[in-house]
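User: Predict IclR family transcriptional regulator's structure from this.
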Amino acid sequence: MRQHSGIGVLDKAVAVLHAVAEGPCNLSELCNKTGMPRATAHRLAVGLEVHRLLARDADGLWRPGPALSELAASANDTLVDAAGAVLPRLREITGESVQLYRREGSIRVCVASMEPPTGLRDTVLVGARLPMTAGSGAKVLLAWADTATQRMILPETTFSERTLLEIRRRGWAQSAGEREPGVASVSAPVRDSSGNVIAAVSVSGPIDRMGRRPGARWAADLLAAAEALHKRL
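Assistant:
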């Protein structure tokens, strides 16, 4: 669930931006995604379009606008900066694809990704939006999410609340063939300077190489990488 600032029009404008980020929208689709009346959704979308935060394509659908990229280019994301220093070493140690995920509502977004130079790999592009219902990264992010988010997502997952309890106990998660057939992964939580879990660092690759219990092989290295990220934050 997204946070509310207490400034109604701002929260609604952000909801419109998130709805369009999930896929191009016409007015009806925008209303369905946000739950807003047509007049409100239209007014906000047109206003965001004026500021170039939204744009319309040839079909008249709203899409993210160029101003978002311009703003993002000047943003300083300390988590991504830390990943640039830590993920290369993790990739070198494991020889597999490595990723960093951040939760946004009921999805997870890949904010950093690196692949091995050769061989079969699990490619997850930066910016990819994946479900919170399967995979080790999803398990980690949900294990430390608030209770309301857990209750909302758990009915749709491939795992149970008991699984989340076990993940919190041992400090990492693994999966095999959950998110995608033939792919295994192991993930660990990344904490900020206050100790809050803000991301999941992951190693993923073919089950044939990583095995069906990849945590036995890579959990210690994931935990070390997560600690290195924590120290940089």
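The beta strands are 54-56, 62-64, 97-104, 107-114, 129-131, 173-176, 183-191, 197-206.
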